[in-house]
Amino acid sequence: MPKVTIDGEEYAFEGQPGLLQFCLDHGIELPHFCYHSSMSVPANCRQCLVDVGAPVRDRKTGEFQLEENGEKVIRYFPKLQTSCSHVISDGQVVHTARTSEKVERAQRDTMEFLLINHPLDCPICDQAGHCPLQIQAYKYGPEGSRFEFRKVHKPKKVKLGPNVVLDAERCINCTRCVRFTDEISRSGQLTIIERGVKNYPITPPGVSFDEPYSMNVIDLCPVGALTSADFRFQARIWEMASTPSITTTNAKGSNCFLWVRDNLVMRITPRPNPDVNEFWIPDEDRLTYRWFNENRPCGPAALSKSGACSWDEAIQETAEILRNTGKETLFLASARATVEDNWMLMQLAEAVGGQVAGYIPHIEQGHGDGWLRTDDRTPNSQGCERLGLRPVDMELWGARLGAGEVKGLYVLEDDPVAAGLCSAQALENVQVILHYYNTTNQTLPSANVALPAATVAETIGTYVNEAGRAQRVVPAKVIKGVNRTLMMQMGLSRADQHGTPFDRWHNESHYVDCKPSWEIIPLIARNLDVEIAAQSPKKIMQHISASIPAFAGATYKAMGLSGVTLPPIEIEVAG
Amino acid sequence: MTKAGDWQSYKRVLLPPVKDLHHLDVYRAGGGYEALRAVLSDWKPDEVTEEVKRSGLRGRGGAGFPTGLKWSFMPPVKPNVPRYLCCNADESEPGTFKDRQLMEYNPHLMFEGILIAGYAMSLKACYLYVRGEFANWITLLQDELSKLYDAKLAGSNILGTGFSMDIIMHKGAGAYICGEETSLMESLEGKRAYPRIKPPFPAQSGIWGYPTTINNVETLACAPLIISRGGDWFAGVGANKHPGPVLYGISGHVNRPGVYEYPTGMLITDLLDIAGGIRGNKKLKALVPGGASVPVLRADMIDGVTMDVESLHEAGSMMGTAGMLFLDEDTDMVAFLRRVARFYHHESCGQCTPCREGTGWMENLITRIDDGEGNLRDLDLLLDLCDQMEGRTVCALADAAAWPVRNTIKRFRGDFERRCRPSAWAVNA
After folding, report:
1. Smallest Cα–Cα separation from A77: which of B383, B316, B392?
2. Chain B CA closest to residue A47
3. CB–CB of B228/B31 below 8 Å?
4. Which chain A positions have a beta carbon within 8 Å of B387's beta carbon?
5. Which of B210, B235, B260 is the last residue of a domain?
6. What is the SS3 assignment for A318?
7. Which of B349, B353, B393 has the CB atom closest to A195's CB atom?
8. Given an 8 Å threshold on Cβ–Cβ distance, is B348 in contact with A196?
9. Cβ within 8 Å, pair B354-A192
10. What residues in A contact B368, CB-CB < 8 Å?
11. Structural domain contains residue B50
């Protein structure tokens, strides 16, 4: 197998790997800005320079030429090479800044150049704290500056599109954003204008940077030049905790981080997962962050108690209603709820003798783009299908509800009125029990008992995306009266990439008084004198994966943070 | 006898003294396009390349790479894989203005050279990338090119030989960097003219990703001469290792600036005499022998130095484009360097960090010295910046910006020091 020597250590390699990626894959740090593994290599930042050489062979004999001390004679390239664009070949010798003063100097020199016209406004920059320029300047840059002139001034606060704001002075012209729109999203909405030290990226005249994936350039930007119009100046990196999660606006289940400060989700960024979303998420997924913070319920309510009540009262009331409606209760599962929640609902329905009619499909024709957006606007319809649930027959059940044939309606984390299953009037004589996320839920005024449910940011559970990949989420923020099991998961959930003492879980502000549905349902069952073992979601999933073939292998351990692909199943097309 | 041989009786061949030579009929009357006819009917493509190799022709665009060798880098012809020739007429180096003369007075020599080169490399299309500011020359070239098509000397089935080749003119949009060959290709493709990383070289992946050879106007204009008079004739003109006729673009403080055609290997002092000596009977102070980017030579460094690769290398400079800039004894070298630095700052494309940031910083420092605000330590910082830029970028613009700064300061350090305030501390203290 061919070998390459890097800083005196030998590594075997296969194929024709790029030197920079090879080093990063082997834990050898090389400073770089313009290089990104998913895009073309422009080699324009010149930060990743290394010294590359190869042993010299004697032309006649083909043997390696040897020094007097027996070591091979190495002939180095006359110039330092950019490791990003250099393809390794057998026998080459590479020196990074660790073993070559020449390389160390070159990297320091480039960093000095990068910084002379950079505003150095780190104290107010969103990127500070996880800024590649900042980090690498400390590590590889010079001390102080020899630049004694006015910096070049360029446009600041340029609104490129609805979601992205540019500060051209911070830009180091790595062209990552331009290459993203050229090569990844293919919108071609960004380009570099001007020349030399004045150049910066911007949209062509008359074009707004409004493509559905525009905000990915914010994460790509190695400095604070591209910022989110929403998140700009809202929070410092070290004040937030980032928790791995998935997005729930569609059936793709893109992996993301939820950034939380004081129990408020401040922003959502992509989490790399080569099997699902690579490095990207659509803008719509990021902009849902508000949905976790705003219009959230403050505890359960029951009509019989004329509004707000305690959890105990709400659960007793629910049990009372179910006892009365019994078999004439229509249970609606939810493609927005986790697999565990839906399974629990099925257990409750069985105990009461009612039936789970299925889940409400949320299909928006034409929304999908074959990439990270799908027509299905729910995260878990595939999970429901695998539990044996089908999209509910909207016409049939709408008619039955309208005709008063249904006495009780138990809705799990959905909104039948908004979805068009029935009108609010049709529910006037129906006993409605509703698990809901936000007070904007249009079925809420018709509910007899309203049970606030935990969202994806607060619960533990499993979602199955359209490709059959089961992915687990962990809580990113605390809810009131948190369950002990949940608490343990939280302890494990902290990614702490940038963790500091400023953000801790004991911060009591902005607690939402809600409970995960998998926790609510067993409480109701107990009041009906039915025992559904109040298991932890982990145990529920263990049970499901062992008993339902469509979930074979979907244990929490197997899913980890990047999910596991389930065996394929025959599936009816929703709608 | 100098390397240039008997240059006093030299007869011009690139720009012969023929009235209205730029007209197709005048050019043909003088035996024009006969070399092309001969090549198309009697030569094999490889033989043409071999003849050019034998002639020892080196590129006239500045780098001086052997032309025949460059042509032979083209990969074997593959069916359905287009390949291109590109004629680089984006002449914009300060102090260089010889291609312009060729395009004005003898454009058909260039066209004929293009067609011969196209035949030698078995390709069917040549892009002629002309600097946009040459608006008048573009009109002229377009007129002559359409005459060429009418006379069946370009397009399909040239001279009834079955060889077809198109010449497509492309107008630059005002960037010096587009003269860099890979950047020129990007520009031609309609993209932002950022130079490409080499390898792959143009012969492997050039315009639209296909094999491409890029040659300078004057280089291609030499091809018909080599065919009609023979490679050996060409190799016998001027300096051994850098033979042929060459256009010297002489400018600066001389009595008769202009473009002069002579063999390579001319003594610099002879060329100064030809240009009428320094004006106002002043003394020579400095010479930039090949366009603004090559290292400047002091007057005391040019004795016995001839205009060819070897001799200029020994003297500590380069042949470049043979655009010679003579500076007289009253020249302010700081102001001179300030102007040069300003040019490279203005023309840096901004792709690579060292060039983008370094060229501006250099101009700032030199401006400060020129304004009398500079410190002695600024000179060391300037030399440091040269080290930080040279050889660390995708293309050679950073080198071209650093060489004049480094060498002007080194060779005229006194001029700079006199303009500086003494430093309180050293730059690398």
Report:
1. B392
2. B353
3. yes
4. 109
5. B235
6. helix
7. B349
8. yes
9. no
10. 149
11. yes
Nearest CA of chain A to the CA of B197: how many Å? Answer: 7
pTM of the model: 0.93
Q: Is A195 on the interface with B (CB under 8 A)?
A: yes
- Kindly report the nearest CA distance between residue A270 and chain B, in angstroms: 28
CA pair distance B388, B291, nearest whole angstrom: 23
pLDDT band at B295; cut points 50, 70, 90: very high
Domain count, chain B: 3
User: Could you list the mean pLDDT of each consecutive 10-residue stretch along chain A, which spans 575 residues?
Assistant: 95 96 96 96 96 92 87 93 96 96 97 95 93 95 93 96 97 97 96 94 96 97 96 89 91 94 91 95 95 94 93 96 93 96 94 90 95 96 95 93 92 96 93 96 96 94 95 88 63 48 60 92 92 82 93 93 90 48
Q: Are residues B66 and B151 in the same domain?
A: yes
CB burial class (10 A; 0-12, 13-18, 19+) of residue B212?
A: buried
**Secondary element (H or E) of residue A94:** strand A93-95
Element (H, E) at A307: strand A307-308
Residue A487 touches partner B, C-beta closer than 8 Å = no
- Whether B242 maps to a domain, the answer reads no
Query: Is A481 within 8 Å of A520 (Cβ atoms)?
Result: no
Measure the CA–CA gap between B297 and B311, rounded to whole angstroms.
13
Is A42 in Cβ contact with B427 (below 8 Å)? Answer: no
Sort out which chain A residues have CB atoms less than 8 A from B357's CB and list them.
113-114, 116-117, 197
A200: nearest CA partner in chain B:
B350
Q: What is the CATH number of the domain that holds B309?
A: 3.10.20.600
Task: Write down the ipTM of this complex.
Answer: 0.94
User: Which of A33, A44, A49 to probe by mutation at the B interface, max B CB count within 10 Å?
Assistant: A44
Chain A residue with CA closest to B395: the answer is A44
- The two beta strands, B84-89 and B125-130, are parallel
Residue to test with chain B: of A197, A199, A202, A223, most B Cβ within 10 A: A197
B33 and B94 belong to one structural domain: yes
CB contacts of B197 in chain A (<8 Å) are 41-43, 82, 85
Q: B194 contacts in A (CB within 8 Å)?
A: 42, 44
Q: Is A38 on the interface with B (CB under 8 A)?
A: no
Please tell me which of the candidates B358, B364, B392 has its beta carbon nearest to residue A106. Answer: B392
HEC string of chain B equals CCCCCCHHHCCCCCCCCCCCCCCHHHHHHCCCCHHHHHHHHHCCHHHHHHHHHHHCCECCCCCCCEHHHHHHCCCCCCCCCCCEEEEEECCCCCCCCHHHHHHHHCHHHHHHHHHHHHHHCCCCEEEEEECCCCHHHHHHHHHHHHHHHHCCCCECCHHHCCCCEEEEEEECCCCHHHHCHHHHHHHHCCCCCCCCCCCCCCCCCCHHHCCEEEEEHHHHHHHHHHHHHCHHHHHCCEECCEECEEEEEEEECECCCEEEEEECCCEHHHHHHHCCCEHHHCCEEEEECCCCCCCCEEHHHCCCCECCHHHHHHHCCCCCCCEEEEEECCCCHHHHHHHHHHHHHHHCCCCCHHHHHHHHHHHHHHHHHHCCCCEHHHHHHHHHHHHHHCCCCCCCHHHHHHHHHHHHHHHCHHHHHHHCECCCCCCCC
What residue ranges define each of the domains in chain A, with the CATH number in brackets? 3-114 (3.10.20.740), 301-493+508-565 (3.40.50.740)
Instruction: Give the nearest chain A residue to B363 (CA atoms).
Output: A149
| Domain boundaries, position B152 | 16-235
Of B235, B263, B287, which residue constitutes the final position of a domain? Answer: B235
The residue of chain B with its CA nearest to that of A145 is B427
**Residue A198's closest chain B neighbor by CA?**
B350
